[in-house]
Amino acid sequence: MRTASVAAGLLLLAGCKPPPHPVERVEVVAASLAEAQVLALTPSQLQSELSRRLVPDRGFKLLDSRSRGEEGAVRLTLEVDAVQEQTNASGLPAMEEVTASLGIRRSTEEGVERIALQASRTQAVEGDALEGRQEAARRALDQVLDRLVKEARVHLDARKRDDARLVKDLRAADPLVRDAAAAALVSRRNRAAIPALVERLRGDDPLEVRRAIGGLVELQAREAVPELIEISRGKDPGFLRELVYALGAIGGEEAQAYLYTMSQGHDQPAVRDAARQALEEMGRHGHRGGPPGPSRNASLAPGGSAR
After folding, report:
1. pLDDT, average across residues 283-297
2. Which pLDDT belongs to residue 92?
3. Which tens digits make up the pLDDT trace of 199-213?
4. Does the pLDDT at position 265 exceed 90?
5. N or C: which end of the chain has fewer CB within 10 A?
């Protein structure tokens, strides 16, 4: 009797596990490997590295040619964004950082669903400079692929849940589950994701911060403008340019005032130009909230003093 109860319990648990996501195609952007020569991998080799990770234990089922077209099947596209060498104090290679993106595409009744993921990992260089760099880069790539496959499963699982479950998942202990829930809610234009996205702005991971900014732009979250301005403290000009374009896309009086001050008083010409362009875009799309004037948050931006 006890054995039967245990067996029933195991079956129940197995039934709660989401079925693996069918994958009908795996592609690699061949051109992206041209700038990643240290990896010394061909597109087909990289495709195989990704494909061997698409197993049921990891939440995927790679379809053969006869099963193509299965309902809910996804297509995966992998692109190596960068392989960067970081040197030590002696000028010798010390670390290899690999960044890659995974695009997920699936046809649904509502149209084509797309998910874009990105991961970056770093590994120390050991031994001979050339061979050591290659080994470190490949170790970092392995970690990136593992991470992307894990994120893909969590995000695809989230897309199958209703809004009420996703809102609950925003408070999950696993940060991956929280991020996937926020992304799914953003894709449905559900503003319940905004507090979670604002919280992510305070994180240390640049990729996560950029994702959060993108989600806030998608939702036109003007209530997040003060926090977006706040995170401009001490940031480099490249990040500030991204930020001013995001504020221009969101719009509103506070964003407009901040961009006006940046366009007039920032000490970096590239940032001033980006702020002016963002203001022009706001005007073209009707996102302005009133006549421009100095922002009360101008002091938060580096070099942001009125002239």
Report:
1. 55
2. 66
3. 999 988 888 899 999
4. no
5. N
Q: List pLDDT tens digits, range 168-194.
A: 999 999 999 999 999 999 999 999 999
- Choose among 213, 225, 281: nearest CA to 252: 225
Domains and their CATH numbers in the chain: 18-160 (3.40.50.10610)
* Cβ-defined contacts of 205-213 (< 8 Å, 24+): 206/239, 207/118, 207/119, 207/120, 208/179, 210/242, 211/179, 211/183, 212/182, 213/242, 213/243, 213/246
Read off the tokens for 32.
């992206």
Q: Is the pLDDT of residue 68 over 80?
A: no
pLDDT digits (tens, 9 = 90+) for 48-63: 999 999 999 999 999 9
Report the alpha-carbon distance of residue 274 to residue 193 in Å, rounded.
28
Residue 69 CA to residue 81 CA, distance in Å, equals: 29
Instruction: Write phi, then psi, for 52 (nearest 5 degrees).
Output: -70, -15
Beta bridge partners of 191: none
Task: Check if the beta carbon of residue 94 is closer than 8 Å to that of residue 146.
Answer: no
The answer to whether the beta carbons of residues 22 and 73 sit under 8 Å apart is yes
Can you give the C-alpha Rg of the chain in angstroms?
Answer: 23
How far apart, in Å, are the Cα atoms of 108 and each of 23, 105, 165, 218?
14, 10, 20, 21
C-alpha–C-alpha distance, residues 295 and 156, integer Å = 41
Distance CA 99, CA 97 (A): 7
Burial class (CB in 10 A: 0-12, 13-18, 19+), 102: buried
Residues 6+ apart with CB under 8 A from 158: 166, 169, 177, 180, 181, 183, 184
Q: Which ranges constitute the DSSP H helices of the chain?
A: 2-16, 43-51, 129-159, 163-169, 175-187, 194-200, 206-218, 225-230, 237-250, 253-265, 269-284
